[in-house]
Amino acid sequence: MNLQATTADFNELLIMAKNGNALAQYNLGLMYDNGEGIDQSYVKAFEWYSKAANQGYVNAQYNLGVMYNNGEGIDQSYTKAFEWYSKAANQGYVNAQYNLGVMYQNGHSVQKNDAKAVEWYSKAADQGHIKAQNNLGVMYAKGQNYTKAVDWYSKAADQGHVDAQFNLAVMYVKGQGVQKDDVKAVYWYNKAANQGDAGAQNNLGVMYETGRGVLKDDAKAVYWYSKAADQGDAGAQNNLGVMYAKGQGVGQNTALANEWYSKAADQGDVNAQYNLGVMYENGDGVDQSYAKAVNWYLKAANNGHNQAKLMLSRLQ
């Protein structure tokens, strides 16, 4: 579209909007919101969305809620965001229903209310909202209704939602709401891991290391631990350290083991803190230092590691 046509279209839309056409008002808001054909302006977007929203135009009501939520074109107000999301949600607008669920779940501008969160997530989930389906699964799992949790996780997981895929795998590992099935757990961990989920990558590494639901394969365990560790997952960093320390699935390298233990320990991973204590006590991959060993045993012990408490009592 050339500039002349864009200008003509804008002028026509402006006339319609000024004459009270809600759709035109909403579209003007969109143009200002996104900077389409005109200079971007949240203030003017808010102005036109407001006009349309006050006429009951549901898309504008939702967008007005977003602007209040984010403080775009107006001072941030979760209360006002809730008000406009509610108007849109009561007209069946699925994203508004989901957002109300989030606000009730987290207590943003309203009293935290799990029942209300479930109510709004259910409305959105029934319309196929993938995040609402996963969150509804979380709420049912929290209430220990594992069968319903699995139902909703499955709906979202089948649509590719990575958190739902991870959550569904956990349900199969624990046998909650489904028959315990490590093969299916591996299937869903693999789905989530291939989407980059660090927790799934670490857990998939555990399955390969222990041979649960899959043939034991230390090299593949190292592969998945490495993927998660590189993303900063503390559990995976510790697990990778163990593999290097033992030479499982990778050449033994105590220096690298200590490097990964250190990364995990600095994040508060209790097992890594204990493992570092062992390495410093024995001088594996580091200069032997009882002082540093005591330091790491103490950190682990303070985090509830029982073996670290025993080691500490022996050294002190």
Write the layout of secondary structure elements.
Layout: H1 3-18, H2 22-34, H3 42-53, H4 58-70, H5 78-89, H6 94-106, H7 114-126, H8 130-142, H9 146-158, H10 162-174, H11 182-193, H12 198-210, H13 218-230, H14 234-246, H15 254-266, H16 270-282, H17 290-302, H18 306-315
Radius of gyration: 27 Å
Helix content: over 70%
CATH class of the domain at 1-127: Mainly Alpha
**H-E string:** HHHHHHHHHHHHHHHHHH
Beta content comes to under 5%
CATH superfamily heading of the domain at 1-127? Tetratricopeptide repeat domain
CATH architecture of the domain at 1-127: Alpha Horseshoe
Q: Biggest β-sheet, characterized?
A: none
CATH fold name of the domain at 1-127: Serine Threonine Protein Phosphatase 5, Tetratricopeptide repeat
Low-confidence stretches: 1-5
Counted by DSSP, the helix tally is 18
Strand segment count: 0
Can you tell me the overall shape? elongated
- Mean pLDDT, all residues: 95
Q: Terminal Cα separation, in Å? A: 78 Å
Q: Kindly name the structural category.
A: mainly alpha
What's this entry about, in short?
73% of the residues lie in helices and 0% in strands. The chain has helices at residues 3-18, 22-34, 42-53, 58-70, 78-89, 94-106, 114-126, 130-142, 146-158, 162-174, 182-193, 198-210, 218-230, 234-246, 254-266, 270-282, 290-302, 306-315. It starts with a helix and ends with a helix.
Can you describe this structure?
It is a single chain. With about 325 residues, the chain is mostly helical. It has a domain at about 1-125: Serine Threonine Protein Phosphatase 5, Tetratricopeptide repeat, CATH 1.25.40. Helix content is about 75%, strand content about 0%. The protein is built from 18 helices and no strands. The protein has helices spanning about 5-20, 20-35, 40-55, 60-70, 80-90, 95-105, 115-125, 130-140, 145-160, 160-175, 180-195, 200-210, 220-230, 235-245, 255-265, 270-280, 290-300, 305-315. α6 (about 95-105) packs antiparallel against α7 and α10 (about 160-175) packs antiparallel against α11. The longest helix is centred in the first third of the chain and has 16 residues, at about 5-20. The radius of gyration is 27 Å and the shape is elongated.
